[in-house]
Each structure stands twice: as structure tokens, then as C-alpha cells.
Amino acid sequence: MPRAPRFDTLFEPVRIGPKTAKNRFFQVPHASGMTNANPHVRAAFRATKAEGGWGVISTGACSVHPSSDDSPFPFASLWDEADIRAHAVMTEAVHAHGALAAVELWHGGAAAVNRTSRLAPLSPSGVPWMATHVGFMSAARPKVMDAGDIRDLIRWHEEAAVRAERAGFDILYVYAGMGYLPYQFLLSDYNHRTDAYGGSVENRVRLVAELIDAVREATQGRTAVALRLSLQELRARPSQIAASEAHEVISFLKDAPDLFDIKMDYSTADCAPSRYVAEGSHEPVVDFVKTLTGKPVVGVGRFTSPDTMVSMVKRGVLDLIGGARPSIADPFLPKKIEEGREDEIRECIGCNICISSWHDGVWVRCTQNPTAGEEWRRGWHPERVRPDAAGSVLVVGGGPAGLEAALTLGRRGYQVSLAEKARDFGGRLLWETRLPGLREWFRVADYRLGQLRKMPNVSLFAESDLTAADVQEFGADHVVVATGARWTATLCGANEIPAAPLDAPRVYTPDDIAAGVKIEGPVAVFDFDNYYMGSAIAEHLAARGLTTTYITTAGAAQAWGFMTNEQPLVHQAFLKAGIGYRTLEIVTGFDGAMLGLAQIFTGERRGIASRSLVIVGQRTGGSALYDALRAEGTGFRSLALTGDANAPGAIAHAVWQGHRTAREVGLAEAEIAVLRDAPSAARDFLEPREAAQ
Ligand code: ADP
Ligand code: SF4
User: Fold for domain 392-485+621-671?
Assistant: First the structure.
């Protein structure tokens, strides 16, 4: 199908200094968890997006010098020859698809505490970055940069720029955002200097201007220079001569870079979860930039709707549509719009499992796109599978795992039957996405059902509660069981030792609430799962007018929500909804009127009045159907258990398991190759050094 003419503007080329992007789709720098230790994994991940039509493909943060060392968080570097080789694998792969390659040159300053290099963190005035999570904290405090340090910083950028050009990059970033070093110079809270780099806004932008000049001169104008700026705090600060300090900064720098990449200051706002923040949320902060500069401007906002993208361009907010999460969820988003297939876009659901990967220090994972990070290691392509299969498969269970398995098996060419006992497909998503804020997550089912319904070799059977005898009788060549998991009423003891299930009146699990049980208030929600379910149920119950208390074993509500940028917003939502919360406590007993609690470290006991208790703790997988088939099943070539029934987890885990199962049905173990990547080593690293005595 040809693309709709109203989307033509998205495919116009855009000049960025000496380079031209072939369209307006710009994969902005984002963390991938892939360091220089995994050059082929990284190259394949980024190149897949270039293949999918993104006009510019960027790296994540790429350190210019060992004094910017974020370990153990995964970051890239451009410190030496080996690093050049590691990046060249990616730039070549990206260029092969006609996209430009951009590198986010990065110095973290006081926000990178150099755990491995052990160099003193650098800062304008010795003010530490305010870490709010133990994973980011450090006992190292930054040194105040003197004039020599500033000259070094500029030289490191120059040297990294030369290496970047040699590695094949077309666009070189200067990064003044998200708490990192040049950003700290811009903000008076961090910058108390009295020299030419502190005081007035004009002085505070000086370093950024000098870095831009240095990077440009290092490559003698052959590469484009981009400036990435966080504008949230600056925009909130009044100015004597402009609408805000952000306006002043842009005015001073308006002709300096070839491109402005504008964003928010904090991960929670920049990469906000859909549960609390809608698509396009950056606009009120960044909307003014194009009124002050003639240079092209790129920005993000979890854009998945092509109409919204066109509107951003037409209304003069952005020239280039930045994508981080939408490009992970669907690397082929631009191609699908270009080919009039926008209904096939696998829209990002805003769950932020991707950002949790970076916090975990591993390659990116995505709920919607199970192939993210697996392009090289497992050879998984987001749009293609080898259509080499013949025969039939029965998939039992139409939740995220079953839907993904059926889709991938269908693409492989199998005759697929998907049986689901409920009236509707979607499994856990059907109810979970009715919890406050989680509506967008149903895209996981919508996308897959939309595709499955178009496939002539796939049949969907709702209201089909299959027994082992039914499955045998059905007579498929292969059987995939994806029947999900159940929540248990098991309690949690101190020291995280599981305790027995609680036998008391009005004790419920999330499955009971999903089944529509009537809850009497006041109600307590005891959460030791610590992902979204406990806090979302608390919000759900409070929204129904019940007095709700949330209790967790952890130090904060939805403790794992730190990983997905949800945690601060959960606390804000609790405050707004009047949900009381108690931390570092376990439930020790309940008699239907009083709930017994104990502090997890001291064992100190307390009681609170409660009529009902919801336990959000453990889930058990397993499946009677699978067990029966395994015990007595004959007549099919393979039987697999997948998704939450195999091992309960986040939706992302269920989708990944379903995908893997489907890729591997009918293959012998020897046919499934999983590659291991290796870093490019510099020759001089290989020479043994004599230890100094
Ligand atoms: P997952 O996240 O692994 O996909 P879900 O719990 O979301 O797990 O989905 C499992 C689905 O399997 C549910 O929709 C459930 O109704 C369905 N199911 C469970 N047992 C059977 C069965 N015997 N026959 C058909 N469908 C089943
Ligand atoms: Fe979007 Fe979630 Fe995938 Fe991240 S993990 S790209 S938020 S769908």
C-alpha cells in the first residue's frame, strides 16, 4: 500500500550541517546496555533500526575519557584504538542501510563517580550530584575543576571527536544534559564559579560553546555537531533578559551547533512511564526552541502515532522526530509508515522494562519487541523469521506468551490453532490493563491479535478450555502450552524466607480481585512482589473509595519501580489518592479485624485495623494440562511449556519466552545457535607489562 500523503513530510530530507538525514526519523542517543565489550551485539541492534528506516542512528552515552566512568552501569567509550574498532562495526552496519551514524560524546562529571578508573570525579564547583538511589550513590565527592582541568576536558572532547570520525560517525554530540558535566556548568545550583565559566548565563554557557567549537574544529567541519540539552530546570528559572534561563541559553548558542537535541533533566520525566505520563509530554518544556534558532531541532515524547509526528513538524515544535523507546519497540516504525502499513506498528507501551535493563547493567529488553538485543546473539529479526516450517501447532492459552508464540509460529509457516478458555484473548492483560494507568499496555495483545487475524494459516478459538484429552484428540504435530500462572496467598517471613499461606477470612490475591470479589474496607495490600501489581491494586482499591494501606517489605512503595522510573510517580499517586503506606514491614497474622505486622530488622510488632488483606507476593507457574500431556501424551512431535506457566515474570518475560519457544519448535538443539560476542582488544593491551616494584 502506498503511504498516506499526509505523512509525506516525515520523509523529507533534513540538512544537519555538512550532512543530510534522509528523513525526519531520528533514533536519538539512548542506553542499550551494550558496551564496547559487545561490538557485534550493539552493531546488529542499531543496524536493525537503520534497516527499519530510521534516518539517523545514535549510540548511547560514549565516554570521552576514563574520568567519565559510570561503571557498573553499561556505557560506551572512545578512549583508544580498540574503541574505534568496536564502534566501526556499528557505523559500517548503519551506513549500509543509508542512515547517518551519531555518537553521543559524554563526560559525566560529578554524576559519573569513576568506580573503576578511580579518578576523582570532576565538577564545576565541587557540588555532588544528588543521587536518590543506592545504586547511584558513592562515597567519592567531586573535585573543583581548575583552568587546567577545563583545558583537559576540551582536549579530551577534541581527541574523542577525531576518533569518532575515524570510527565513521557523521554526527558528533556535545552532551549538556541529565546532570552530566556540561549541564552542571549551565545550572547555577552546581556552578558557583567566579571565573569566566560561572556567574551570568553567558559565562555558564561558555564551556558548552567551547566544546562545540572544539569538536567541530577537531574534524575541520567534516562532521556535524549536535548539542543535547536538558531544559526542564533552566526553563523553570526566571531571567532578567528573557522568558527563562532556557531561552537565554538557546539564544546564546543558537548558531553554535548544527542540531539541537532537546530533552528533560531527569530520567523519570525524560523517559516517563505511560502509567502516569502521556505521549508528547516534553512539549511544554521544549516548544520554544525553534522560535530562537534556525538550526534543526530533534526531541522525543514516546511518539508512536504518525499523525502526532506530523503535527510536531507542522506546528513548528520539532524538525526531526526523535525516537528511543518507539525505535526499540518497533525498529521498523518508519518503514511501516512509508509503506502505508502504520496499522502494523508495534507501539511502545511505555512500561520502561527497557530502561530497567540499563539499571540492571544488561542489554536492552523490551516487552513489545522480544528480538531487541537478540539480533546478533540469536539471529532474531523483528520482522522476519525463516518461513521454513511445515505441519501444525496447537497453542493453548491466549495471554502474552501464547499470542506471541502463535504469531511467530504463524510467520514460520505452521498451521497454527490458538485455543483460549476465556471469551477474549489477552490473558493477564485483560484485567491488569484495567488497573489505573495501565490501559496502554493492552497494545501487547492488540498488536498481536491484529496481525494474527490477518494470517490465513492461523485459527483463533476463544471459549475453548482444553483438557489433555482434547489436546490429544486435536492431533496437532506440535503443542505449546502457555496457560499462565496464579498468585498465591503465601506470606513472606523476615530475611526473605517464604512463610506459609495465611488462613484467615477476607484474604485475597490479585487473581481474586480480577475475578471480581467484593472487597470490604479498610483494606491492606501487603506487597513483597514489589513491581507494579501491589501499588496498582492499592490505587484501584482507593479509587473505589476504600480506605487503603499499602505495606511493603522494601524501603519504598513499589521498590522495583525504581528500575522502570515509576517509583517517584507511585508515591505521588499514593499521596493524591490518600493511600497510606508502611515500609520495611511484614505481615505476621490476620484475624479478619486486626492485621499483625513486624519490622523486618528489629522484629518490633504492631497491629493495624483492617477488614481485608490483599497479598501481592508470589506467583506459581506450572500447568496441570502440561503435566498430564507430558505423562501420557503421545502422537505429537514436540511439547513445550512457555510463558508464566513455565516461569512467572513480567509481561516482557512471557513474551520473550513465547517468542523463543516458537522460534525453536521443530528444531534440534544443534540447530539453535547462540553466539558469544568478544571485545576488540588493542594490540598493546595484549603485551604483558612488567609490574613496577
Ligand atoms: P502468559 O503471561 O504466560 O501469557 P497469561 O496468564 O496471561 O500467561 O495467559 C494464560 C492464558 O491461558 C489465560 O488467558 C488462560 O485463560 C488460558 N488458559 C489456561 N488454561 C487453559 C486451558 N486449559 N485451555 C485454554 N486456555 C487456557
Ligand atoms: Fe516501550 Fe516497554 Fe519496549 Fe521500553 S520495554 S520500548 S517502554 S514497550
Answer: Rossmann fold (3.40.50)
| Ligand closest in space to the Cα of 397 | 1
Residue that the C-alpha cell 542489554 belongs to: 363
Q: Of the bound ligands, which one is closest to the alpha carbon of residue 350? A: 2
Q: Which ligand ends up closest to the CA of 483?
A: 1
pLDDT recorded at residue 685: 47
Q: CA-based diameter of the chain, in Å?
A: 83
Sequence ranges of the chain with CATH classification 3.50.50.60: 487-620
Is 531 an active-site residue? no
- Give me the pLDDT at residue 291, please: 98
Q: Which ligand 2 atom sits closest to the C-alpha of 273?
A: 7
Q: What is the model's pLDDT at position 681?
A: 66
The answer, yes or no, to whether any atom of ligand 1 lies below 6 A from the CB of 448, is: no
CB 154 within 8 A of CB 210: yes
**Protein residues whose CB sits closer than 6 Å to any atom of ligand 2:** 325, 328-329, 348-354, 366-368
Q: Tell me which architecture the domain covering 5-345 has in CATH.
A: Alpha-Beta Barrel (3.20)
pLDDT along the chain (693 residues), means of 10: 93 98 98 95 98 98 97 96 96 98 97 95 93 83 97 98 98 97 97 98 98 98 98 96 98 98 92 93 95 98 95 98 98 98 97 96 97 98 90 98 98 98 98 98 98 98 97 96 97 85 93 97 97 98 98 96 96 98 96 96 96 97 93 87 98 98 94 89 53 47
* 519 within ligand 1 shell (Cβ under 6 A): no
Q: Which CATH architecture has domain 487-620?
A: 3-Layer(bba) Sandwich (3.50)
Active-site choice (173, 175, 180, 508): 180
Residue 175 CB neighbour total at 10 angstroms: 27
Q: What share of the chain is helix, strand, coil (3-state, %, to 5)?
A: 35, 20, 45
Cα 211 to chain centroid, rounded: 30
Nearest CA to ligand 2 atom 3: 366
**Hunting for cell 506468551 — which residue is that?**
401
If one residue of 351, 483, 486, 655 were mutated to test the ligand 1 pocket, choosing by the most ligand atoms within 8 A of its CB, it would be 483
> 331 C-alpha to center of ligand 2: Å?
12
Cβ neighbour number for residue 105 with a 10 Å cutoff: 29
How far is the centre of ligand 1, averaged over its atoms, from the C-alpha of 22 (Å)? Answer: 45
Domain limits, CATH 3.40.50.720, in the chain: 392-485+621-671
* 8-state DSSP, 109: G
